[in-house]
């Protein structure tokens, strides 16, 4: 927790001056607010009782002016506060998203999108609220309380002691409910994350749900999740009612005691009526800050749960580290050398076990392997999502560990089987990943050339907005072949030294597959290519073909058709 609080504090610090302005504005507002009961006392005791009409007018005008200034101050305060608190939230979110971008595919295989989203959204907001609001509210409450208590002491010290006699009991009660509050907050957060996860998964699998006629079951599943979430919400409300209600009741008991004791003293003539009215008004002013301070105890307990949930996300570490000093390769031919690498997804279970592979610059090498043999794992290592446990991989003679990962991924392009696109236009997808300068330098003619080379010109010419046609949120309006070809054009624009084709034709019919491979061979002729596929047509024309077996590569010497058929 202290570590997590320090983490949250780091985002609040840059907004210190804005928050100080908020404190100053709210203190000024509080000061003006505190003058009001005093004005009331003067109106009752001096204006009314003393029958002084001129003083009465002056005091009521003073009250009006105080109200106006207080409204202006509170408006300005809200604007400055929103700027600071939104700034903190966005900075925290950018930090967590930045961290998520460093995590390996293994993380995304293990964590559900809903769970990550729940932490990125609800938990971050909870922490931000607490990190910004707690110090402000505590300071505000303490100062308001100090002002109100000072004035209450001035009016009647004994009555002040009576008013706050039950305060320790209120604080002790809230400390005692801590684990209950934390359990209910965590259960609610988990339940909401499950609901978010449900929508994320189901929306992307809607076609499958419809094709399997599973709409009814899915509606039932959602209703069950809703019921669980409702149960947690009600539980949270009960926690809120109890943790707010019991201290509130104790506070009311204090107020009742003030009226009883103070009233008796007014009857005995030991206290003026105006003094009791002013005292009770200050007590009213003090009740808010007291409840606010007590509420902070519960807020801290809830924020602790969210901080813990965020810490779990932030403690996930990247699988690879950036080199202390990056090496710039002397040449850029795309020669690849894999030297006896060992790698597994869990301890003692190597997927690649002493695998070696040499691809001379400019050659085309094929790779066969049954499902689960480790082909995608090898691709992930070549793109440095992971480092081998033993052995090394070099590109143009430089260990991948010594290359800037961003530069490596520019030089090694992967054309995978599902070619995902991002929301935006076709042109946006083609430019995706280029730096701002590269993107600006990329004119429409170059884009059109890449599109023509990837055999997309005819299709794009028929689209109403050409290259600016949006591909849709999940690009589901495009065929697998169209997505593949957009991805191919994108690869072309990046001019990689090594192109890895990981099951590039699995979504295509044989004729389309043959055309795509012929186009790749034409467009990337002379560049280094590693083609991973079960299909003979993808491996045709390879200089060498290997089979991945038991974590190692063996050269395929039999004819390709026979080798593919045996997969
Ligand atoms: N994130 C992961 N965590 C644990 N095990 C994993 C993970 N990713 C892959 N594996 C396991 O590693 C082995 C190799 O998987 P990989 O995806 O590399 O195989 P593949 O040859 O590409 O298979 P396919 O042709 O079916 O895509 C499999 O047994 C797989 O279950």
UniProtKB/TrEMBL annotation:
It holds the Pfam family ABC_membrane. InterPro entries: AAA+_ATPase (IPR003593), ABC1_TM_dom (IPR011527), ABC1_TM_sf (IPR036640), ABC_transporter-like_ATP-bd (IPR003439), ABC_transporter-like_CS (IPR017871), P-loop_NTPase (IPR027417), Type_1_exporter (IPR039421). The chain crosses the membrane at residues 55-73, 136-155, 161-181, 238-261. Signal peptide: none annotated. Gene3D superfamilies: ABC transporter type 1, transmembrane domain, P-loop containing nucleotide triphosphate hydrolases. CDD domains: ABC_6TM_exporters. GO terms for molecular function: ATP binding. The keyword Nucleotide-binding applies. Keywords: ATP-binding, Membrane, Nucleotide-binding, Transmembrane, Transmembrane helix. It is a multi-pass membrane protein. Residues 336-567 form the ABC transporter domain. It is found in: Cell membrane. Residues 20-302 form the ABC transmembrane type-1 domain. It comes from the Bacteria. This is ATP-binding cassette domain-containing protein. The lineage of its organism: Bacteria, Pseudomonadati, Pseudomonadota, Alphaproteobacteria, Rhodospirillales.
């Amino acid at each position: 927790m202290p570590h997590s609080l320090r983490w949250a504090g780091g985002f609040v610090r840059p907004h210190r001056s804005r928050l100080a302005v908020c404190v100053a504005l709210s203190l000024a507002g509080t000061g003006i607010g505190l003058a009001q009961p005093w004005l009331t006392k003067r109106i009752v005791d001096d204006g009314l009782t003393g029958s002084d009409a001129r003083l009465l007018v002056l005091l009521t005008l003073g009250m009006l002016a105080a109200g106006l200034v207080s409204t202006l101050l509170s408006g300005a305060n809200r604007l400055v506060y929103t700027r600071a608190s939104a700034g903190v939230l966005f900075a925290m979110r950018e930090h967590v998203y930045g961290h998520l971008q460093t995590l390996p595919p293994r993380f995304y295989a293990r964590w559900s999108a809903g769970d990550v989203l729940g932490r990125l959204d609800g938990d971050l907001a909870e922490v931000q609220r607490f990190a910004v609001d707690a110090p402000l509210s505590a300071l505000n409450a303490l100062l308001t309380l100090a002002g109100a208590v000072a004035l209450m002491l001035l009016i009647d010290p004994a009555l002040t002691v009576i008013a706050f006699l039950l305060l320790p009991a209120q604080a002790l009660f809230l400390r005692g409910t801590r684990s209950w509050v934390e359990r209910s907050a965590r259960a609610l957060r988990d339940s909401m994350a499950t609901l978010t996860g449900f929508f994320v998964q189901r929306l992307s699998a809607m076609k499958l749900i419809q094709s399997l006629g599973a709409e009814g079951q899915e509606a039932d599943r959602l209703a069950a999740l809703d019921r669980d979430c409702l149960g947690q919400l009600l539980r949270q409300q009960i926690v809120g009612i109890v943790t707010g209600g019991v201290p509130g009741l104790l506070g009311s008991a204090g107020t009742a005691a003030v009226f009883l004791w103070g009233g008796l003293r007014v009857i005995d003539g030991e206290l003026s009526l105006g003094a009791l009215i002013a005292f009770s008004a200050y007590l009213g002013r003090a009740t808010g800050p007291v409840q606010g301070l007590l509420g902070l105890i519960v807020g801290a307990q809830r924020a602790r749960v969210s901080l813990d949930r965020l810490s779990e996300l932030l403690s996930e570490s990247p699988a690879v580290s950036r080199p202390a000093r990056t090496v710039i390769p002397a040449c850029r031919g795309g020669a690849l050398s894999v030297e006896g690498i060992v790698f597994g997804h869990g301890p003692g279970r190597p997927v690649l076990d002493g695998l070696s592979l040499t691809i001379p610059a400019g050659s085309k090498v094929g790779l066969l392997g049954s499902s689960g043999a480790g082909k995608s794992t090898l691709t992930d290592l070549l793109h440095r999502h992971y480092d081998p446990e033993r052995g090394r991989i070099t590109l143009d003679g430089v260990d991948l560990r010594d290359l800037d990962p961003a530069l490596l991924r520019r030089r090694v392009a992967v054309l995978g089987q599902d070619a995902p696109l991002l929301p935006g236009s076709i042109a946006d997808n083609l430019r995706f990943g280029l730096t701002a300068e590269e993107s600006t330098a990329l004119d429409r003619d170059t884009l059109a050339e890449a599109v023509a080379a990837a055999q997309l010109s005819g299709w794009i010419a028929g689209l109403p907005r050409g290259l600016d046609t949006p591909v849709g949120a999940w690009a589901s309006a495009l065929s697998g072949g169209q997505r593949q070809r957009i991805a191919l054009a994108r690869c072309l624009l990046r001019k990689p030294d090594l192109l890895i084709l990981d099951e590039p034709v699995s979504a295509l019919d044989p004729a389309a597959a043959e055309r795509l491979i012929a186009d790749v061979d034409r467009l990337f002729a002379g560049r280094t290519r590693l083609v991973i596929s079960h299909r003979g047509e993808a491996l045709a024309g390879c200089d060498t073909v290997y089979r991945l077996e038991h974590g190692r590569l063996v050269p395929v010497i039999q004819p390709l058709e026979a080798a593919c058929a045996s997969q």
